[in-house]
UniProtKB/TrEMBL annotation:
One MF annotation (Gene Ontology) recorded for this entry: tagatose-bisphosphate aldolase activity
Binding site for dihydroxyacetone phosphate: G180, G208, A209, S210, N229, I230, A231, T232
Cofactor(s), by name: Zn(2+)
EC numbers, comma separated: 4.1.2.40
Listed pathway(s): Carbohydrate metabolism; D-tagatose 6-phosphate degradation; D-glyceraldehyde 3-phosphate and glycerone phosphate from D-tagatose 6-phosphate: step 2/2
Biological process terms in GO annotation: carbohydrate metabolic process; D-tagatose 6-phosphate catabolic process
Main EC class the enzyme belongs to: lyase
InterPro entries for this protein: Aldolase_TIM, Class_II_FBP_aldolase, FBA_II, TagBP_ald_KbaY/GatY
Protein name in UniProt: tagatose-bisphosphate aldolase
Keywords: Lyase, Metal-binding, Zinc
């Protein structure tokens, strides 16, 4: 059975590790994150952005994730990442998604709260967990692009009020990470994270974890991050390996052959990220 993120994030919070949320796009990438997490006994959040859900079809994703949950003895959640439309979220919850993020971070504070509340009211009826974001991450994720000049870091007092009013299950914080790759080294506001953790008791989520040095990710986990979102760092080695395969085998046409090096390359980085999250051997 697919689980919400409630229990797995509380466990992580208690034991000071993070649950990795890997963005997948198709059967192959879903298989890689599931098989690797199962092999390493790590809890797993399978994340899909709106365009992934549209590309792969919600019912196909749910069916694959359910098969994964049935066949493996680890907690697995199927999560709607960066969804902006409550009606789409409701429809996908009906299809079987077990967790969601309503991203209304672009809206003014009160409007963000109002939108998140409608999603919480629906999701909690079905034991589906809700993540929301306060502040604004820069970079490009899916079709959502935010310019560097529009970055807003999460204010701890606002966050307390936001959580009180919305009753969300976890909060995505903006502390200097960005979606995609960085120009140079990221600058993370660890003091702000510490202040947030001090005032907030629900699990905190780090977006944009690709291209953040491992020691910095681990420091955020030590300071209270319990869910780490990773997309770009998986896509690059997968596609690089497939490109490489075609370079060496220009006449190849069997997807089972040319996808396999991509899956193998992705598996290595998934293993590495699970180790960074310290989520192995928890189940
Ligand atoms: P990265 O692509 O930087 O890993 O960001 C992923 C993310 O935040 C998905 O929500
Ligand atoms: Zn994100
Ligand atoms: Na990133």
């Amino acid at each position: 059975k697919l689980l919400s993120t409630k229990q797995m994030l509380l466990e992580a919070q208690k034991n000071r590790y993070a649950v990795p949320a890997f963005n997948i796009h198709n059967m192959e990438t879903l298989q890689v994150v599931v098989n690797t997490a199962a092999k390493m006994h790590s809890p797993l959040i399978i994340a899909a952005t709106p365009s992934t859900v549209a590309y792969a079809d919600p019912a196909y994703l749910v069916a694959m994730a359910q098969a994964a949950a049935q066949q493996n003895n680890i907690p697995i959640a199927l999560h709607l990442d960066h969804h902006e439309d409550p009606s789409v979220i409701e429809k996908d919850i009906d299809t079987g998604f077990s967790s969601c993020m309503i991203d209304a971070s672009k809206l003014p504070f009160e409007e963000n709260i109002a939108k998140v509340k409608t999603v919480v009211a629906y999701a909690h009826k079905y034991d589906v967990t809700v993540e929301a974001e306060l502040g604004k991450l820069v970079g490009k994720e899916d079709d959502i692009e935010v310019a560097d000049t529009d970055a807003i870091y999460t204010d701890p007092d606002d966050a307390v009020e936001f959580i009180k009013q919305t009753n969300i299950d976890s909060l995505a914080v903006a502390i200097g990470t960005a979606h995609g790759l960085y120009k140079g080294k990221p600058h993370l506001d660890f003091d702000r994270l510490q202040a947030l953790r001090k005032q907030i008791d629900i699990p905190l989520v780090l977006h944009g974890a690709s291209d953040v040095p491992d020691d910095m990710v681990q420091k955020t986990i030590e300071l209270g991050i319990t869910k780490v979102n990773i997309a770009t760092d998986l896509k690059i080695p997968f596609s690089a390996a497939v490109k490489d395969f075609f370079q060496n085998n220009p006449t190849a046409s069997d997807p089972r052959k040319y996808m396999t090096p991509g899956k193998e390359a992705m598996q290595k980085i998934v293993e590495h990220k699970i180790n960074v999250c310290k989520s192995a051997n928890r189940y």
